[in-house]
Specification:
Elements lengths: L9 H12 L4 H10 L8 H13 L7 H7 L8 H16 L3 H10 L8 H13 L5 H10 L8 H14 L4 H10 L8 H14 L4 H10 L1 H4 L3 H14 L4 H10 L8 H15 L5 H5 L8 H14 L6 H5 L3 H7 L5
Helix pairs in contact: 5-8, 11-14
Length: 332
Amino acid sequence: MQVVSAQPTGNNSSIRWFFKDKGFDDKSINVMLKKCKRLEDVQSEKADENWAYLTSIGIQERKLPNVVARCPKILSLGLNEKLIPMVQFLGTLLGTKPNDIASAITKFPQLLAHSVEEKLCPLLAFFESLGVHEKQLGKMLMFNPRIISYSIESKLAHIVEFLSSLGLSNEVIGKVLVKNPSIMGYGVDNRLRPTSEFLLSLGLEEKELQTLAVNYPEVLCRDAKKVLNSHVTYLKNCGFEDQHIAALVTGYPPILIKSIKNSLKPRIKFLVDVMGRRIEEAANYPEFFRYGMKKRLESRQKLLAQRSISCSLSEMLDCNEKKFLLRFDLAD
């Protein structure tokens, strides 16, 4: 007996023809229909209307298929009831640049699937309680659009609670989140807390951990076992002792996330082999690792060596070029 495969009928057929007309293959269409069951009841005219609107707000035609494939639900949403109000609200947050909204949606199409009243307004109120203004929230969304998908109760409030446990006020927490929105993408129990505990185990005081969280929140986001511990091991192998490492991390926290191969290794080699200094000198002046090799370290070391001038690392590095030349009477 011959088996005849079922053919799409009704609205299902309509939306399939729409997708085929836009260049989607059968496999992609099936995946989208499975992702969003509501699409089966969407007329091609409605989908076409939403598609046209998305191009009208600046989403490039060549990128739109990828946007829709990642969030097919946007073709089923009411244009006047959902899409336009959300885009208008995003416009107030993201500014007046015409490409900002399109860029955010292209990054994270699910932005459009959320409700202004049910999601964006509560999100705005939550951040306002931390001293974050509308325009700042807009910048955060541009950097990390996924913020809109995070639960306020189970995700964002948990992160605020953790930062508060470090001794930070709500206003300071707001500044931390604005400075590094990506911190909201990490879990408290599996990333932020273990990393903070690791930092304390290195010898940092609670006050120093607070300063790190405010000025270098990106360090808190890194995996303690995979990243931070490997850097500590490398520094110990170079001759730094426990108290030196505590001083390095306190004075310049990014030392734990800088590339070992491209940043730490060449600077330590330059310090010892070219400058002829002891390793402890870097522990006394951790910002040594902040400066560029060619523009600051190599050029200044060359000038000092030509005149046989001896000085501390801080005297050599903690001033601009003009002051450096005047300090050591090197100006022509």
